[in-house]
């Protein structure tokens, strides 16, 4: 039996698309909203089964991974998030690179010999790795218009993954993956399934319009923090708006907070684009925090720790 375990954002979905285009097989899909990363504990695999794990932190799934390996389950693990100690096991194939300019789909693209690179470009745009995405796209001899289309799709796929629960999303990630599967090119998908693509575009545009009305709680030359209202659109837009703020102000770090169903805050942090470092370190100081150097977050920040986070955020990026 095959299990495909993947982050519900652009990178996780596009990484799996590449793998399954290269190796078609029936599988059980295990995914969730973007911040739902403790996914391996849901996998009930047995000896002889194979599990693909894409775009979720090994550090956050270490014990379930070790349990699978102990049960003689073959695991393919590709990721770019925190991984302090990668297990050595003949049943584990690990493609892990935490460089700030790498995403999981780019790792899978390299692993597959650049067979479906347009999907990797789409994912890189979704992860706000714009320079890298454009570089790879130019190697595919795509026009400027085609590159812009991949950028819009990547942003929209990434946008769709954000939310406290599946009810916040426009499309459940497993459903969205199934819409995309079978298209060797993202351009073919956009031309053929304009209904799905247009729904993503419209949702993104409407939510971003609301986000841009939000005033900063504070902003300095080096850091700015925004708190969004307790609305579905705010939970959906937190990550992609963080990326847009980072692009508009590349010398400044950004934190975007939205209220969650537990009465605390979901936090998205973006390091300055001209110094992609520290977001993971900062967020890891708080329970449920983590991510990568350029972009990280906290799933649940208690309200009584908001001022502590603000001080830590400003202090870290004012150095």
Provide a short characterization of the protein structure.
The N and C termini lie far apart (51 Å).
Question: Might you state the CATH topology name of the largest domain?
Answer: inorganic pyrophosphatase (n-terminal core)
What's the total count of β strands?
11
Largest sheet entry: 6 strands, mixed
Strand order of the largest sheet: 6-7-8-9-11-10
Q: If you had to describe this structure to a student in words, what would you say it looks like?
A:
The protein has 319 residues and is an alpha/beta fold. It folds into 2 domains: 2-204, inorganic pyrophosphatase (n-terminal core), CATH 3.90.1640; 218-317, Diaminopimelate Epimerase, Chain A, domain 1, CATH 3.10.310. 42% of the residues lie in helices and 17% in strands. It has 12 helices and 11 strands. It has helices at 10-22, 62-70, 104-111, 117-126, 130-138, 144-160, 173-180, 186-192, 194-211, 232-248, 279-284, 306-317; strands spanning 2-6, 28-30, 50-54, 74-79, 92-96, 218-219, 223-227, 253-259, 265-270, 289-291, 295-301. It has a 6-stranded mixed beta sheet, with helices on both faces. Helix 4 (117-126) packs across helix 6 (144-160). It starts with a strand and ends with a helix.
Topology:
Elements (H helix, E strand, L loop, with lengths): L1 E5 L3 H13 L5 E3 L19 E5 L7 H9 L3 E6 L12 E5 L7 H8 L5 H10 L3 H9 L5 H17 L12 H8 L5 H7 L1 H18 L6 E2 L3 E5 L4 H17 L4 E7 L5 E6 L8 H6 L4 E3 L3 E7 L4 H12 L2
Parallel strand pairs: 1-2, 1-3, 3-4, 4-5, 7-8
Antiparallel strand pairs: 6-7, 8-9, 9-11, 10-11
């Amino acid at each position: 039996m095959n299990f495909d375990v993947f982050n519900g954002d652009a990178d996780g979905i596009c990484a799996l698309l590449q793998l399954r285009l290269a190796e078609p097989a029936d599988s059980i899909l295990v995914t969730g909203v973007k911040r739902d990363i403790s996914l391996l504990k849901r996998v009930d695999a047995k000896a002889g089964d194979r599990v693909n794990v894409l775009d979720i932190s090994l550090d956050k799934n270490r014990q379930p991974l070790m349990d699978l390996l102990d049960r003689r389950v073959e695991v393919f693990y590709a990721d770019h998030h925190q991984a302090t100690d990668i297990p050595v096991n003949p049943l584990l194939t690990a493609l892990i690179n935490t460089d700030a300019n790498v995403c999981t789909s780019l790792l899978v693209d390299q692993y597959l010999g650049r067979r479906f690179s347009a999907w990797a470009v789409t994912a890189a745009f979704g992860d706000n790795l714009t320079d890298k995405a454009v570089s790879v796209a130019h190697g595919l001899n795509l026009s400027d218009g085609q590159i812009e289309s991949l950028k819009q799709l990547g942003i929209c796929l990434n946008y769709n993954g954000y939310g406290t629960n599946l009810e916040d999303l426009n499309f459940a990630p497993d459903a969205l993956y199934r819409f995309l599967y079978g298209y060797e090119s993202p351009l073919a998908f956009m031309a053929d399934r304009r209904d799905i693509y247009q729904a993503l575009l419209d949702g993104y545009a409407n939510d971003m319009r609301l986000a841009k009305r939000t005033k900063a709680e504070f902003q300095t030359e080096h850091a700015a923090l925004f708190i969004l209202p307790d609305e579905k659109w705010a939970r959906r837009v937190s990550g992609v708006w963080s990326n847009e703020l980072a692009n508009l102000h590349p010398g400044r770090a950004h934190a975007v907070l939205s209220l969650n169903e537990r009465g605390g805050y979901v936090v998205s942090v973006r390091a300055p684009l001209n110094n992609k470092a520290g977001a993971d370190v900062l967020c890891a100081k708080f329970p449920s925090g983590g991510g990568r150097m350029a972009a990280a977050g906290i799933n649940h920040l208690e309200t009584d720790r908001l001022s502590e986070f603000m001080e830590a955020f400003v202090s870290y990026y004012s150095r």
